Amino acid sequence: INAEYMGDYQWELTPDMDEEKVRDSGFTPGRVLFLLPFRNIALKYVDAMLRILNLPDEAVLNKDKFYTDFSELSPDPNFHNRPDDYQKQFEGSVDDEFCVGMTLRRRTVKLFANYYQADILFASPLRLMNEITNRKNKGHDFLSSVEVVVVDQAHTILMQNFSYLDHMMTKVALPPAYVHRSADYSRIHRWHLDKCGVFFRQLIVVSDYQDPFLSSFMHRHSHNLSGRVTVHNIIREGCLTRVFSDTRHIFTRVPCSSYTQLSDVRFDYFKQHLFPQLQKRVGQNRTVIFVPSYFDYVRVRNYLEEEDKDNYREMCEYTGNKDLDRGIGCFSRGSCKYMVMTERFYFFKRRSAPKAPAT
Description:
By secondary structure, the protein is of the alpha/beta class.
């Protein structure tokens, strides 16, 4: 928008002018990057921005195409039978491969703008990772001038492939690999020319809860000269005393000297202590083994394959529907003792399973 105003005037830099006031751009127009897990979240962001701009429908280019592509085409008939938190998270399109550019002008807004003409980008880490490796896009150059990165619902991105987000952030605000003729070098900020864009980039990460991966992510990629700020939603009074359940909870502390050894120590404890106790229990023929990490799940599954092959079934994000139905049926009838379930399976599919005496 500022470029349109500046284009109406003929000006040149004089000794009495403040040079930094004249420098108001970067190598490319893109300034804001929203990293979101699903299309339904991107739809809410764009819809909120259009309501704020309050432009007529004819002033928003490609609006119908955007709402068509980012709306759910074939809703799940059993969706409303799922828990409330699941409906809130997965209402609408949950496609995790999208990248949309938005160009802002004085009287118009264009959606699906070219990456090198867009002022704001809405993307998923998966799609953006594919775009910066595409030679047609000249690598990461369209992200070279990003000044604000917003990672919303980071706890949901943790359930996806977090390495895409981690690797992609290393490409944001880097100097471009190619010379772009559309860039006016007399108006580019000094910090971009000095290859210091990462020190002026603002990174905002929003999550429902704290996680070591997110803390480590902030330490690796938040290099702003102004420092870092962490905002917590402080809960003054807990709610566990108001939860009434007949389920007996047993928490076991597993000693571990290093976080890097946590997976090995936890698996050894499962083999040496927990699983032998499950085998000795009489009258309890159904147990759900819930494993947060897929890598730990593979180790537990392979161990059960060797120790008790015929007495377990698996439920993970890669298990087909037929195998799921067959496994749930066997577990319900008591034909198998153990059901191994991953956290991602519970998060994404939330498939109803029969109740088990122990988890």
